[in-house]
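Recall that a protein's primary structure is simply its ordered list of amino acids. Everything else, from secondary elements to tertiary packing, is in principle encoded there. The following example makes that idea concrete.
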Amino acid sequence: MTNPFPETHPLHTVAETLLARTDAPLCPKAPWQAGLLSGVSEGSYNLQALLHLLNDDLDSAHKLVQVHEDDSTANYIHQLVHRREGDWGNTRYWVGMTGPHTFYEEFGNGTARERLDACQRGDSGAAALSWQEQGELLAWVVREGR
């Protein structure tokens, strides 16, 4: 995946490290690199939450988005957090709360519910598709300033 930050941006190196991963699990048990994002306060809560999500730090990502139910992008990230937890019912709830998000059409690859179903079934390629979705959503959040 392409790093959405210019080389001079303070988050460029962090994003480069995260996006270079090729083995991200669908449902991680712990953060990938503890401390990688400690002290990161650059950008919006959505941006920070996505970086935590890409680092498999689901708790930190969840804390950032759960208090922003009025923001469809935060709700989108919220559904991704629960999907990566394997909490399928809660994921379905947050898919509904997200509503018709602009990024859905840009990403394609089926509907949010279809991607959720593929993850729940453990379909081949579901983890890779989920990882691609998170990386492309990060690029979209950076581009759109959300």
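The mean pLDDT is 95. The first helix runs from residue 12 to 19.
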